[in-house]
Amino acid sequence: MVDVNEFGQPVGDLVPEWEQRPAPRPVVLEGRYVRVVPLDSVHYADLFDAVCGPEDGGLWTYRPIARPTALAALWMHLASGVEDSGTVAFAFVPLEGERAGRATGIAHYTRIDPRTGQVEVAGVLHGKALQRTRAATEAISLLMRHAFEDLGYRRFEWKCDSLNEPSRRAAARLGFTYEGRFRNHMVTQGRNRDTDWFSVTGEEWPALRARHGAWLDPANFDDEGRQRSSLATS
């Protein structure tokens, strides 16, 4: 039932004892299959190897720049995010597989608003060796858990180019709710970008964390690492 104020107008639910939350800081998040660590120049060469090969151009289609063809170009691109005071940049270091111990993906906290308790995960980039792995899923789940449980945030956002179908599928698989499309939202690499918005709220997180945990449980995988149950059914 919707609350009504003294003027007869519907108003939102009270948020008891709400106060500004702390801003996220660079932290290390330890998982079973991945470490999420503050992005640093020590990771750049490994990331160049993981995401900038001649066959990796498609990884950059929906990003602000095309595939860097030299380490220096990637260095400048990544350093701009690390140095941006409005973002917190992370590297994903898998603990298993062919690239165990080497940075193979990145993401950023951005659109950080401690006053209202919301944050976006953005710039997610997985090298092909990280894609469709339990390490990739766990990396995003760890960032969500940190925002909701350690920082006490109320809203976690995911946005992508509306034409980026893999990103749209990933958001749905991870449990995000589609909220709508911002038309003519950006110009990316000289092309129009309509942006799709997704979110998870603090109220949804406990059930979603349980789903993530059930899927990530080692018992959900056979001896060759193949899933027994999909995340959508966990």
Question: How does this model look, in words?
Answer:
- The protein has five helices and ten strands.
- With 234 residues, it is an alpha+beta fold.
- The chain has an eight-stranded mixed β-sheet. A two-stranded antiparallel ribbon has the order 1-2.
- A hairpin with a 3-residue loop joins strand 3 and strand 4 (34-38).
- The radius of gyration is 19 Å and the shape is globular.
- The two termini are 31 Å apart.
Rounded to the nearest angstrom, the radius of gyration is 19 Å
Secondary-structure element pattern, one letter each: EEEEHHEEEHEHEEH
Task: Tell me the β content.
Answer: 25-35%
User: What gap, in angstroms, lies between the N and C termini?
Assistant: 31 Å
Largest sheet: 8 strands, mixed
Helix content estimate: 25-40%
Strands of the biggest beta sheet: in what spatial order?
Answer: 3-4-5-6-7-8-10-9
Shape: globular
The average pLDDT is 97
Low-confidence stretches: none
Structural class: alpha+beta
- What is the count of DSSP helices, taking H or I runs of 4+ residues? 5
Q: Say how many strands there are.
A: 10
